[in-house]
Amino acid sequence: MRLKNLFLLILLTHTFILNAQQRKEIRIPDIPGYVTLKCDFHIHTVFSDGSVWPTVRVEEAWLEGLDAISITDHIEYLPHSADIIADHNRSYEIALPLAESKNIILIQGTEITRDMPPGHLNALFIKNANLLDRENVNDALREAKSQGAFIIWNHPGWKNQQPDTTLWWEEHTILRQNNLLHGIEVVNETSYYPEALIWANTKNLTIFGNSDIHSPINMQYDLIRSHRPMTLVFAKERTKSSIKEALIGHRTVIYFDNKLIGKARYLELLFFESISINNLPMNLKNQDSKSVLITNNSDIDYDLELAQPSIGFECPEKIKLKAHHSSLIELTGNSDEVNNMKNLRMVYSVTNMITEPEMALNVTFEITNR
Amino acid sequence: MRLKNLFLLILLTHTFILNAQQRKEIRIPDIPGYVTLKCDFHIHTVFSDGSVWPTVRVEEAWLEGLDAISITDHIEYLPHSADIIADHNRSYEIALPLAESKNIILIQGTEITRDMPPGHLNALFIKNANLLDRENVNDALREAKSQGAFIIWNHPGWKNQQPDTTLWWEEHTILRQNNLLHGIEVVNETSYYPEALIWANTKNLTIFGNSDIHSPINMQYDLIRSHRPMTLVFAKERTKSSIKEALIGHRTVIYFDNKLIGKARYLELLFFESISINNLPMNLKNQDSKSVLITNNSDIDYDLELAQPSIGFECPEKIKLKAHHSSLIELTGNSDEVNNMKNLRMVYSVTNMITEPEMALNVTFEITNR
Amino acid sequence: MRLKNLFLLILLTHTFILNAQQRKEIRIPDIPGYVTLKCDFHIHTVFSDGSVWPTVRVEEAWLEGLDAISITDHIEYLPHSADIIADHNRSYEIALPLAESKNIILIQGTEITRDMPPGHLNALFIKNANLLDRENVNDALREAKSQGAFIIWNHPGWKNQQPDTTLWWEEHTILRQNNLLHGIEVVNETSYYPEALIWANTKNLTIFGNSDIHSPINMQYDLIRSHRPMTLVFAKERTKSSIKEALIGHRTVIYFDNKLIGKARYLELLFFESISINNLPMNLKNQDSKSVLITNNSDIDYDLELAQPSIGFECPEKIKLKAHHSSLIELTGNSDEVNNMKNLRMVYSVTNMITEPEMALNVTFEITNR
Amino acid sequence: MRLKNLFLLILLTHTFILNAQQRKEIRIPDIPGYVTLKCDFHIHTVFSDGSVWPTVRVEEAWLEGLDAISITDHIEYLPHSADIIADHNRSYEIALPLAESKNIILIQGTEITRDMPPGHLNALFIKNANLLDRENVNDALREAKSQGAFIIWNHPGWKNQQPDTTLWWEEHTILRQNNLLHGIEVVNETSYYPEALIWANTKNLTIFGNSDIHSPINMQYDLIRSHRPMTLVFAKERTKSSIKEALIGHRTVIYFDNKLIGKARYLELLFFESISINNLPMNLKNQDSKSVLITNNSDIDYDLELAQPSIGFECPEKIKLKAHHSSLIELTGNSDEVNNMKNLRMVYSVTNMITEPEMALNVTFEITNR
Questions:
Q1: Which of A243, A249, B62, D87 has the highest CB neighbour count under 10 A?
Q2: For residue B198, what is the enclosing H or E element?
């Protein structure tokens, strides 16, 4: 059968075959006084043991909606060195022009890669990675510090280095004392280290969640239903120096598989900036029911569990606030007390916002009654 | 709020974040006498102008359900040569061990990369790509031939080389006469060249649809809703030598964005091996209606349009046979003639099976009546 | 094998099986002075020839993010009357309490169902549908008018009533003259009637796109990748009376399968309220390239085609602004003229915003240079 | 801008807006000697407390790939009786013609709806539901039995009737003794009752998993990522009488949110009919690694955990066999013993195949070595 125009046109449009070359905007709100930057500070390329060219890392970051990345190829582990002849600054140099044209903030970094202790450490904001190629790890770290580096202990609970336990070593205490250690990965790739969260809280380290991606990002993470682990940075502005200032100021939260990990004050701000509450004229009486509509304008699904019995009325045991959806929350007066309450108070635990191991953020809703 | 066990366990399972590391089986049927192998004969890596390490190409092919690939890095175009020092066989050597462990057939190949004419040509089944690095393209092709190469003209209608028209050059006639040209890409990446389909039919060239992928495959193709372009090879068995024999025998069909392009006899076999027809006891009478259930067991959505009026009964103008779904086709007797028909005959055009430019495959259904 | 706790917990959570009972917020912006209400004014239930209980219509509307609906069961066509004994107000009465508790604006309506001319007409904002059950259609319409109805001609190009052409009848002229016809469906279910768009423009009728849904909504529309047809109403506030005032004021746009149909002034406002433009410090010179980032904050994918050659620089022929994504638009200076231009002007046609049949909206971007 | 042909054609095709009206084939294999029928024996319509017309239930079943359903409207609970005047056979009568034309097996049924004990009971394969409308529940059940009914205790752990515990009552023992109780729902809607699974095993009741759907099916179940609960029936043929024979013979398995619950012998058959094992020529030696490819041809994701240490070699602790995907399982020789083993034996627990509460099916793979 001779085909008509229609078919040929369809043949040429082939909408599906091409993957979108557009940047997905991540909807996580800013908080008062700060922009919330989406960052990944641990990334590899073919210039160490990764499997993609440095420009791919910029392209991926752009498509996924990141603001800033650091390519952190290993100094000491170069399995492709039979084929790739380049110095330690090369992956940064190759990625930089594309980062500039795409307005991705590219932070020069490298991974100092040693046996435990002290294990693997990322030096960010360096100027010349070649000078960190030193036999003694302390020499490397001091050189990094002299370049102004911010230094992170990576995957402290990595099974290859700490198969049975996750320990803080004497060497890390010394590094901390010498101002050679500033942050710690609480999340690396698909691993979460609760011990590291405790250390961060007690030893005043900045917390990080990074992808440590080696392969093309899509091979490791399901970007349709989830996202790569990332570090949310609360920066004064969207610049490299503001990011550094924020890291020094411990203003980070980890975004990991629809969970947020960090200080209660930042989590609470993120939560309340994510939602809007819309109640119909509310005049709740005993034996009466009224509804509150809560709209979640963020990309994060929030899971709430009632943390304290509400007084004067009943409210749901569990609330799911799905990303970009609204939930209707029904309140039912269960004592005469409610008839004269000006505020209806509900305290929920947001079970996917974590402040300490096994501890979730509590949030308090105050609904005006009448 | 102190979290209970439930949450921690969920935290550790994080089902979503990890992308599936499993091979998606492509459901396109074998045809009588042959296995249908899913192949991509045009692929790049960092060893020419691609952006991934060769092992990534094997991993991608495995995940997508391919049987065979050829990595065809350019001989003459090596933009990463400031950093990568390797000979022309290197990407094959690096990919081979992984291909063997994953049972992916890896065919050594290379792309001879010249101005038009003759343009870019892939030499497949070669043994030493270094010997093809010759100043004169004919020397390169003769060397390829002496190694037993199967040679393909790539993207003959590429706008960079033929901006306004798609021409067959005198040089290609000479190559064909000298047995230095055996196949042609009718589909390359997202482009379809109808002229090439005509040439293949008139000059007896084997047709190909290849990805010509440079970036990570997910960046270029939407693998959720579509698939990379590929060449279906009807081989006697799943081996490298059987593939070569099939290419020489012109036993290929192009699978491109839910369309199949090729010889009518292969398309017809693929179509009828894809579907099963299940009619209830059918005894169609005039003014009566009966249904036929057609199940499509393949990954391909078939679009059918009635190509000839049916005799004695009416049937739908259009039928959509969605992949892995069934359609109920209603037949309604419209003349007394139908009362005594032993066979109900319907001729449809499958508009996404293309035999020539603007020509779709016609298929005939014979439904037993009574 | 005895299962551990993990499994049992997973068994009890079964995240997947339950469909979300949450309202998806439709992201289509308000325009200056008005809220953009998402409305569907043509809906059926079991109380005429639909297949769901009236409460289902409210539930569906809530889940899909609609603001207002009208249930418009037929007066004259009651195929379930052997089983359902109820008057014409009943579906409204049943739906109303749920609509109130879910804050969905429910507009009482009915469909006067006659042969052509005048065909089917929806009477909205009525008070008693029973009084419209009159033998003479003009009596019915006059009764509707006396109740304050807004009257719409439904699916004017319906093939069952106008198989070969889509005509405006003398009867419609008379209805219009007698103020018994105020609006027209340009889109009904999956049909678009370009003739009706012309009539609306020339005869000053309010345009509508409605679902005319009979089955459960998911059976007819793909709510994952698309949406039901709806009428966007630009209302002063989110109330029933504001909707009526807006309909009388012709302030509607049709939202149909990712297309918007309506007056240029409303489409232009919707477009520019949907996007944000973010250019880096731009100082475009001849032979230089700079980028502009356009972010689409709406649910609508916009397709742009260059409508006029730009002066002093080149810009893309086509731009796709995918919903909730950003596109980087590259501008390249191509004459010295650009060096001193304070504004870079680009005129694009938004091909999925339709003002007249075969006519798309033109939008002009003015980018500050320097 | 005047649009060209392209746009208008696209406008008319609108591929997305229409939901597929095609039947999704459920890929769960037959087992030797039996066809595996996908059935749902607990369904409501507007003729009791459901919210859809009976034909919708047939349409839904067809689209979802079911073979048989029973509409089981309540005898004693008719909340729509102010509007719907019909006898208890009516929903069956209305649904039957469509079921026949779509080749869906429609089993007449009803739900006898009483306080606990005995609670709610479905009578299937009845002939006249009106005769079951009796004051005394035993009279109703005896009438059902006299019509040849198969009787199921529904949702035995329903919180409304058994808020704190899930008990088997003396009354149920008497019903069982009088042959007035033949089956039990172990799964109802989103609830799983482990107690009922124990009772089924000890008291020889046929097990059921049913949807108990009241709303449109899409409102309750996520049909994209999961499926409604259903009862798999192993029948000699695809007929109503074969289903009845199979129910009497206890040949059922529950399919619930990607889990299968039932007798070990049926689960094991389903598992091994679902997969194909393809190992390369295997000659595993100590310190050597070889791979086995397991392809899962079913719609069910299987989760495997090693249940016994393998002898002579190591194999993965966990295996995920994703639906329609293949997994490569690596075996590594860890003792000289393996050098001479003719069979490599692996015992895994399939954690989503449940034979008893907290007990998963063990499956044994025997891989030929050499």
A1: A243
A2: helix B194-203
CA distance D90 to chain C (A): 9
For residues A263-289, give the mean pLDDT: 92
Chain C nearest-CA residue for B13: C6
CA distance B140 to B136: 6
The per-residue pLDDT for range D55-96, each reduced to its tens digit, is 999 999 999 999 999 999 999 999 999 999 999 999 999 999
10 Å Cβ neighbour count for D26? 19
Q: How far is CA D109 from CA D87, D104, D116, D132, D337, in A?
A: 13, 15, 20, 11, 60
Exposed, middle or buried, D254 (CB in 10 Å: 0-12/13-18/19+)? buried
* Complex prediction ipTM: 0.94
Rounded to an integer, what distance in angstroms lies between the CA atom of residue D346 and that of residue D363?
8
Distance (Å, whole) CA D254 – CA D36: 12
Per-residue pLDDT tens over the stretch B27-41: 999 999 999 999 999
Q: To which H or E segment does residue D9 belong?
A: helix D5-13
Inter-chain CB pairs, A–D, below 8 Å: 10
Q: Which of C237, C104, C117, C254 is nearest to C191 (CA)?
A: C254
> The dihedral of CA C255, C261, C265, C270: what is its sign?
positive
Rounded mean pLDDT of B235-240? Answer: 98
CA distances from C200 to C144, C186, D8, D195 (A): 21, 8, 19, 65
For residue B291, give the H/E element and its range: strand B289-296
Bin C324: left if φ > 0, else alpha if -120 < ψ < 50, else beta. left
Q: Residue D27 — φ and ψ, nearest 5°?
A: -95, 85
- CA gap D324, D218 in Å, rounded: 24
Report the SS3 class of residue B270.
helix
Residues of D with Cβ-Cβ distance to A6 under 8 angstroms: 9, 13
C9 chain-B contacts, CB cut-off 8 A? 5-6, 9
**How many of the other CB atoms lie within 10 Å of CB of C348?**
27
Spatial neighbors of C124 by CB under 8 A, at least 6 apart, are C41, C70, C72, C107, C108, C109, C149, C150, C151, C152, C244, C247
Q: Which residues of C touch A22 (CB under 8 A)?
A: 320, 322, 325-327
One DSSP character per residue, A153-205 reads E--TT-TTTSSS-----HHHHHHHHTT---EEEEEETTEE-HHHHHHHHHHTP
- Average pLDDT of chain A to the nearest whole number: 93
Angle (CA) B316-B319-B322 rounded to 5° is 155
**With 0-12 CB in 10 A as exposed, 13-18 as middle and 19+ as buried, what is A144?**
buried
Cis omega (within 30 of 0) on the bond before B309? no
Whole-number Cα distances in Å, A201 to A197, A357, C5: 6, 11, 31
Quick one: CA torsion of A237, A239, A243, A246, rounded to 10 degrees? -30
Do D6 and A6 lie within an 8 Å CB cutoff?
no
C222/D19 CB distance under 8 A? yes
pLDDT in tens, B267-295: 999 999 999 998 766 789 999 999 999 99
Count of other CB atoms within 10 angstroms of residue C357: 18
Residue type at A370? Answer: R
Per the omega criterion (within 30 degrees of 0), is the bond before D29 cis?
no
Residues of C in contact with A325 (CB under 8 A): 20, 22-25
Counting one residue from chain B and one from chain D, the pairs whose CB atoms sit within 8 A come to 54
How many whole angstroms separate alpha carbon B200 and alpha carbon A271? Answer: 62
CB pairs under 8 A, 24+ apart, for B76-81? B76/B112, B76/B113, B76/B114, B76/B133, B77/B48, B77/B49, B77/B113, B78/B47, B78/B48, B78/B49, B79/B48, B79/B49, B80/A53, B80/B46, B80/B47, B80/B48, B80/B49
Nearest CA in chain A to D6: A9
